[in-house]
Amino acid sequence: MHLMNLFPGQQEDEQIHLVVREHAFVFFLRVLTWLVFVIILFAFDYFAEKYIPTLLEKPYVLYVDVIKNIFLAYVLYALLLLWVMYRLSYQVVTNERVVDVMQSSVFHHSVSELHLHNIEDVTAEISGFFGTMIGYGNVHIQTAGAKERFIFNHVPDPDKVAKLILNLYDREQEQGHPKAPQD
Amino acid sequence: MNNFEAYDPSSIGQAIIGSVFYISIAFVVLLSLVTLYVFLKRTIERPLSLTVTIVYLMIFLAVVGQGINTLGNIR
User: A13 exposed, middle or buried (CB, 10 Å; 0-12, 13-18, 19+)?
Assistant: First the structure.
């Protein structure tokens, strides 16, 4: 996979250890929800034929087709939006920090970062039927003091992600970076 | 192959449906272009993003083309 600059302020000598985003199954579940809107199109044809057959005769059917075209264009756009949100939201773990890149809407993009020496605790959490069966969950990173904690939502193999972060934290401590003072 | 006919409304119904269609499509085209711009600007996997963009534009243009064709058939 060819990766461009992952986040602002990325150092040239910074080693990327992990780039992770929500599990593909979570995206698939969203697409299933989106499919409901596609089913509406087919359901309309089915029920119109049964209850309002006039709508399927000329010239009304042409008006209906135009409205269906508009509906389909918006449904297509919704799928694009789902994909864009999915691909543009990811987390990066480097040998120096953890970075959370979040695209929560077309016009809202945020990048938060947390230096490894500020980490207090890392917790992996797997819950729910699909999470247990498919193997995705959340990773909570508690920072020093009252600062907000990082959450990696629905990432694959949260245990491995948590272990990697803790290993990098340990390595950083061994290299002599002091732990940040608590508030 | 479909012959696209120029849209020329001759009744109030056609004018209304034509206006609704073009205004709605103009809005979704604007949204799509802005979204694709943001997507291509911020992506970390350019080849995949370009492929998705091209596929989306092809399908979207087919849907809009179909709509324009249907509008042309309203008499």
Answer: exposed
**How many A×B Cβ pairs under 8 Å?**
90
Query: Cα(B74)–Cα(A79) distance, rounded to whole angstroms?
Result: 30
Q: Indicate the pTM of the whole model.
A: 0.84
pLDDT digits (tens, 9 = 90+) for A39-85: 999 999 899 988 988 888 888 899 999 999 999 999 999 999 999 99
> Beta-carbon neighbour count of residue A140 at 10 Å?
15
Residues in A whose CB is inside 8 Å of some CB of B read 1-6, 19, 59, 62-63, 65-67, 69-70, 72-74, 76-77, 80-81, 83-84, 87-88, 90, 103, 106-107, 109
* Shortest CA gap B74–chain A (Å): 6
Distance CA A17, CA A22 (A): 17
What pLDDT band is residue A144 in, cutting at 50, 70 and 90? Answer: confident
Q: Is B3 helix (H, G, I), strand (E, B) or coil?
A: coil
Nearest alpha-carbon partner for B7 in A99, B45, B15: B15
Q: Which of B24, B31, B15 is nearest to B74 (CA)?
A: B15
Nearest to A123 by CA among A150, A171, A162: A162
- pLDDT tens column, B52-61: 999 999 999 9
